[in-house]
């Protein structure tokens, strides 16, 4: 028996777009859950109060 499977491999552009959209979705979920913008690295108004800590020297 010979089986032939014709599965097309996505192009690099298609993969980039797929992961770009997946990352956007993850960022949006994080922002909504923790009221912190991980892209701009700033807290936003919401459920949690974010406090900046100083490192121990």
UniProtKB/TrEMBL annotation:
The keyword Cell cycle applies. Residues 10-53 form the Cyclin-dependent kinase inhibitor domain. Keywords: Cell cycle, Protein kinase inhibitor. InterPro entries: CDI_dom, CDI_dom_sf, KRP. It holds the Pfam family CDI. Belongs to the CDI family. ICK/KRP subfamily. This is Cyclin-dependent kinase inhibitor domain-containing protein.
